[in-house]
Structure formats: C-alpha cells, structure tokens
Amino acid sequence: SQKIEQNSEALNIQEGKTATLTCNYTNYSPAYLQWYRQDPGRGPVFLLLIRENEKEKRKERLKVTFDTTLKQSLFHITASQPADSATYLCALEANSGYSTLTFGKGTMLLVSP
Amino acid sequence: NAGVTQTPKFRILKIGQSMTLQCTQDMNHNYMYWYRQDPGMGLKLIYYSVGAGITDKGEVPNGYNVSRSTTEDFPLRLELAAPSQTSVYFCASSSSSSYNEQFFGPGTRLTVL
Predict the structure, then answer these.
(1) Residues forming beta bridges with residue B57, ordered by sequence position
(2) Does A42 sit within 8 Å of B107, measured CB to CB?
(3) Nearest-CA residue of chain A relative to B51?
(4) Coil, strand or helix: which one is B37?
(5) What architecture (CATH level 2) is domain A3-112?
(6) Under an 8 A CB cutoff, do A44 and B43 touch?
(7) By the number of CB atoms within 10 A of the CB, which of A14, A47, B6, B39 ranks highest?
(8) Is the pLDDT assigned to residue B96 strictly greater than 80?
(9) Which 8-state DSSP code applies to residue A52?
(10) Are A59 and A77 in contact (CB under 8 A)?
(11) A93 vs B contacts (CB less than 8 Å)
(12) How distant, in Å, are the alpha carbons of A69, A109, B98, B105 from that of B49?
C-alpha cells in the first residue's frame, strides 16, 4: 500500500531563514501532490498543488518541488516568520481515485524570533 | 460564504451511545469527505461522497455510517460509540476536478468514555 513519510521531529529555525520540509512516498506514483498548513485546533488549509509533470511551483514565499524519480517533494518557506509556525501536511492523490487524498502525519515548524 | 461548517465543536459520549456529526458546505461542491485525526497521526479518510446519493468507504469506515441526501450536507453517524473513536473529526469538500484543493471545516473533538 502507498506510504507517505514526513519528518516526525519538529523543525526549529530562526526568523529570516529558509525552512525546508520533506515528504517521501513509496509504492505509488501519484499524479499530483498537495501541501496543507494546520494550526492547533483548526482544520488544514490548502497551500500548493504540484503535478507530476511540474518540477517546481512557487507562491509568494513558498516553493514546492516534486521529484518523481526520488519519490520526494520538498516544501520551502523563504524568509520565515514566527507566523509561519504550524504543522505542514503533505497529501498525495490516493490510488483509489475519486479525488481522495492520502495524508502524511505532518511536520511541525517552529520559527523563533 | 461560510465554507464548511461542522457541529458540534466538542462532544463527550458514553460507550454505546450514538450521535451524528453534522457537516454543511455552501460552495456547491460535489465531493465531500470525512476524516479522523488522532494525536501525532495524519488524517485518515472514513467515508467520502462524489455527489448526492453516492457514498463510498475510505480507509477506516468501521463503526461509522454516512448519507448524502443533498449537495450541501454530509452527516457522519456513530452508532455504538467506543473509546477507539475518540478523535478529532474533520469534514472537507472539493469541486469535481481531481486536482482541486480540499476545504476543511473547523473539526469536532469527540471523547468517548
């Protein structure tokens, strides 16, 4: 079955630095991958989608890469701010179809001033 | 435009009791989903629906039932609550395209004692 791995340890960085989060997957070749942000006590919020034929996608300070050979996506936040502190979830198109997603466990990002 | 709304926000149930978690969306989305999220774990898909009258099981459907009589509403029913169903439940919706983002509700925190 498909498996998604995100670093379970929290990532601590200083304000202004670039945060890089990793999402690895196995046993599947998804047509697309999405990243979500989740704040404590709230539902996830969509950030970016990248398709299998796209190497990189950008949105303001966010950048996502998708390497289908390595089966890996990297999520970057440049010039990070304390307000970026949250848990970031990687989600892949599930092989069951019908627009369902399989989510990773998420990585917590803590940006200190 | 309220997006996806869920009620109640919190609920404590005794073992064996039943309840319905309500979910409503006002974006005219065909696809709706129910997830559960346990501490430190990713979102697990319980049930989903691709349109009124059509539902299907996700990864963890046991102990739950759903119905979809209208486009807007997608209630989740717990018939005989068990401690293993203690979790945070999220409802989400998306438009029909496979590539579209999912919009999440604020969640319902359920405790079964």
Answers:
(1) B47
(2) yes
(3) A98
(4) strand
(5) Sandwich (2.60)
(6) yes
(7) B6
(8) no
(9) T
(10) no
(11) 98
(12) 33, 33, 13, 16
